[in-house]
Structure formats: C-alpha cells, structure tokens
Amino acid sequence: MESADLRVFHMVAREGSITKAALRLGYVQSNVTARIRNLESELGTALFLRHNRGMTLSSSGKTLLTYADKIIGLLEEATQALTSSDEPNGPLTIGSTQTAAAVRLPALLASYYRQHPEVLLSLTTGHSQALMEKVLQYELDGAFIGCECDHPELQSFPVFNEELVIVSHASVRSIEEALTKPILVYSTGCSYRAVLEKWLQTGGLAHPTIMEFGTLEAIVGGVSAGLGISLMPKIVVAKQEVEGSIRTHAIPESIKFMKTEFITRKDSFVSSALLAFIETLPRVDSE
What kind of architecture, by CATH, is found in domain 84-161+259-280? Predict the structure, then answer.
C-alpha cells in the first residue's frame, strides 16, 4: 500500500466526493478514481459505497480510515521533526471554542506572533468535542476546549478559569424571570449548553423553548435585543453589561466556574513553534 494512495483515500473519505478530493489534491478526477480502484483491488474489498449524492465509507473503509488518520499524521509529523529548527517557524494550527477565540486569544496570539513572526499561525473554531477529534486526527496541533479532557491519547492543562453567568436583556430583573425566557444556545456539542441543560434538568426546571445559533455574536446580539437568555462566561459580555444592554445573573457555586484547557496529543512531536506557544500560555490551578 503506497502512502500516496492512502493520502488520496483519506481525502476522498473526508470530502465524500471524487470531484472535491481531486480539487483539494490538485489531481484530475480520473487519477483519483484510478487510485481508489487500485487500492480496493489491492485490499480485495470495497472501501466506498457509491450513490447519486456522492460516496460514503463502507465498513472496510471506516476501518482503513482509522489507520489512515494515524499513518498520515505520523508521516507529516516525521517531516516536521526532520525539518524543525530551534527557532520557531513553519505552520502552527490551533483550535479554539468561539468564546475563548473572541475574548481570550486575540491578545495572546498577537503577542506570540510579534515574538515569532516566522510561524504561519492559523486558528480554527468549533465545539469542544469536535476540536478534540481534530487534535486526535492530527488536523490541529493543539486546541482550547471548554471542558475537562480525559481522553487517554490527549494531554491537557487548564489555562483560563471562567466565571459562568446567565445573561439576559437589561430589563430582566431576576434569574427567576430570566428562566421563563427562551434559551439561546449553540448547536449540540457546546460545553456551556450542556451545563445549562443539566442544571435545568436536575432542578426540575422545564424549558422547552431552545433557539440554536451558529455564532457567539448572534447569541449575544439576540440576548441584547431581548430575544432570550444564555449561559456564557461573564467576561464575554463585560462590555455590554457596562453599557447597560445586558444584565448578568449568578448561578449556583457548584457550576459557577469552568476551566478552559489546552490539549495536544500525548504521542505527537512537539515542534519549536508549538513548544514556544505552550510556554506563552497562562496556567491556572487544576484543583
């Protein structure tokens, strides 16, 4: 099995389409198709189920993909290790929750880039679980997540300690009144949403009206307009609270604080760029 064929398979699996994979790889479609067919012939099994909406992995394809993630990740890591220098340089791909990216990272990333201008820094945002998966698949060098990480292949340390609050329109005077309003949340997978839903459930507080939004800005804007309430770090709405468009409400001590952790793979090569980045991060008490 050639590594080039494995890379083609990996891209088709991720894109779900020969056409999209060919564009990403810079190949003609016939070349990609031929490589997939040769790989299936070599392995003696169909790797994809073909249909009019594209291609989905067969059970054999899903098995191969788990190995492809690791093999390609290790190949890229080997290249990185052999070309690494003591001076931080090259690509550094970091993931983050939207809240951390909005209020915690701008100053941190700006400071890092001033010190290490040869590093090609990129930032991807997403939910904590999705970010963990991207680190596991070698798609990210590290990520800031809004929950505790206990995955055996990942290592983590807390970098920020966030005070969570219920946020509402300024006209809402009490948390009891706030909890009668619609809840504005990210889609399933958001750590703050999980905390809020668990609190409501364990407290016997029925709350059927949930509105999903795709961005932090949309949620904050909705709260400011009086559309509903949300749960988020107090620091996110500090400006709006001072301006008087939003009111914050304290929640029970047992769920009041949540740590943002930085995660990396335990077995990954730590490049000079990643090491320098980790050294710039703050640390908070893990207790």
Answer: 3-Layer(aba) Sandwich (3.40)
